[in-house]
Fold this sequence. Notes:
The protein is an alpha/beta fold and 321 residues long. The chain has eleven helices and twelve strands. The protein folds into two domains: 7-115 and 302-318, ATPase, nucleotide binding domain (Nucleotidyltransferase, domain 5); 127-187 and 229-297, ATPase, nucleotide binding domain (Nucleotidyltransferase, domain 5), CATH 3.30.420. Helix content is 42%, strand content 20%.
Amino acid sequence: MGRDxxxxxxxxxxxKVAVACVxxxxxxxxxxxxxxxxxxxxxCFERLxxxxxxxxxxxxxxxxxGVGTASMVDYPSGxxxxxxxxxxxxxxxxxxxxRRFELPVAIDNDATVACIxxxxxxxxxxxxxxxxxxxxxxxxxGIIAAGQPYRGFSGAAGELGHMVIEVDGPPCSGSCPGRGCxxxxxxxxxxxRRAEAxxxxxxxxxxxxxxxxxxxxxxxxxxxxxxxxxxxxxxxxEEVGALLGIGIVNLVxxxxxxxxxxxxxxxxxxxxxxxxxxxxxxxKALVPQRDQVxxxxxxFRAHAGVIGAAALxxxxxxxxx
Length: 321
């Protein structure tokens, strides 16, 4: 692929909006980050428009806009149906962006667009059936079936983080009414709480010392300590990775994918997280699925959100004409 055309790529997360221009070879240019405006849908929309305008002013004209959002999306209409972490509900985002910028626009769930990017340009190249889990503040999911994104009847398929792992487990986050969802047991928010609890209890010297020194005690610190071999931090990742593995067992048994890609900020822990998950799949998934599936870390990490949004626009708008 060449470098043109440029796509304005938007990643709307619960805490930040990332906007960039991305070329056809998925090179990120002029990346901008801004806090997500969460006080209202209108404020959230205006914030992302300001960032898109600024990026276009920096780089020049774009051919299309791609958007990934932490929301349930009715893909055919480009309407946001529901958002667990955003003030967007029943919001016609695609139409509003079309009117504002007079450009073709594609919008989908952020995990679905990340899955499209990994399938076409990343770890999943060459596969026909793959799944993706994005582990961040929450957990999103994407499905590629027979080489195409699977969105379900109303476009809301892929909420893989809301499968129930523990019937009487902890409450899930945001507007989810469930308990014991994968998201409530494995996400970045869970790792933050586990780190804080260990530091407060004084049961891990390194975490307690970090808290006394004024360091931020969170999942990032927990990952760093686990990589250095801290026993308590390693034990947390063994437990969390095994729970992730139970979720993947369910997905492998149901979907029989060639590949499960794990992305998002939590996946930065690498094999600390993925090896316990692989062991759980090897022990508990059905034959032949367990012997066929691969579990890999995502290729696109730092800029996964905007690359996913660009991949959506490229495959759904420009490539298809």
